[in-house]
Amino acid sequence: IMLNDFLAVSTLVSIWFSLLASLVTLYGATCFWLKHSKKVISITPLKRYPTITIVVPAHNEEVVIANTTKGILNLNYPASKIELLLYADNCQDKTAAEMRKATDLPQYRYRNVQIIERHGSGGKAGVLNDALKIAQGEYICVYDADALPEQNALYFLVKKVLENPQRYMATFGRNKTRNAKQNFLTKCINQEVIVSQRLQHVGVWNLFKIGRIPGTNFIINTEYVKKIGGWQSGALTEDTEISFRIMEDGYLIALAYNSEAFEQEPEHLRDYYYQRLRWAKGNYQVVMNNFKHLFDKSNWRVKLETFYLTCTFFWFNLAVILSDIIFFVDLGCIIARFFNPEIPIIFAMNSNVLLMQLLLINWLLMILLYVIQINLALATQYGQATSDQIWLALVSYFTYSQLFIAISLQAVCSVIGDKLFKRDGTKWVKTKRFAD
Questions:
Q1: Cα–Cα distance between 350 and 242 in angstroms, integer?
Q2: CA atoms in the 13 A half-sphere facing the CB of 104
Q3: Is the pTM of this model over 0.70?
Q4: What is the DSSP string of 17-34?
Q5: How many Å apart are CA 240 and CA 336, to the nearest integer?
Q6: Which of 305, 288, 200 is nearest to 243 (CA)?
Q7: How confident is the model at residue 33 (pLDDT cuts 50, 70, 90)?
């Protein structure tokens, strides 16, 4: 009984701490949107227009690359100030041909574009490092092959970095789901993306001036990237890894909240699973590599980010897993008692009814906060706050959100296995694309 109570109390305290962290972020985001939601944004000339090298890494992306290329070439930014590097990275399809078909259109014929058919290693980070060697721009901008930028996306990124170019070493925008209404999975992903982009990123930036480079729709100072030796080749989440290096050097990654790009999300469970498994493994690798910063002389932002990610991927995940084990074991025992009343309820906690009640309240609060987060995030984006989204949020809590636990568990086991058996953990399954 004492072991049961200990597990229950540990789970209770852990999840309450997780709820507190979520409430802090929620508070920061709410303050931000109350301040900015009434602002009228106008497109006015910038005090200067630095040259931007836009890099697009594409591996077997023939389905989407043409639209992305045209979207980039149509950006509201002086054409003479854009150098576009399109990389067909180890492609076995018509990605390069689709790139040429788009750039050969009359309106783009005289633009500064290079199409490079690459056969090197290192994945996306390898492409970015190759681009770094030839980039002529003051800043490097990255768009994934499926990320269609809104016309003013680059304008807002540059506008933000020019507010404090000595301190803002990079700026990042928000990403939205292009195929949000395709099926149940993409609808759930859309809610997750909106929460992460419009609550978590915004709240953390507003409260602590901590930014995290996403995989796409960001700019970074070219000379700085050269100075630190570029991106970590072969990294599964090269964006998170370089974010830590920027913070370690005392610089900021600023949020340009008006800059938007539209990404295509996985439409099938298998594609989603392998994509998120890669992301989770990459984040676990980054957390493990940076855990030492909790105990060294790193600045407080690095320590806070390390602590937050450590809690999220290790402590909080373990607490949720324990909570699920307690719930499902007891549920199974209750069902079994219909057939054999002598079967004990393993985590009944008969000695502490109050503790059992607190666990139930805790579970209800988790659901409530989950739904509140989603609906507050949806309310900040035009056309998203509908009654259907409320019901979807409830259903997704018991289905979609539970996938993250399974994926995280496999990811941490895989990372540990890679280190123990010296396996190559940098390979991933290609996410399938769909025609718009």
A1: 50
A2: 6
A3: yes
A4: HHHHHHHHHHHHHHHHHH
A5: 46
A6: 305
A7: very high
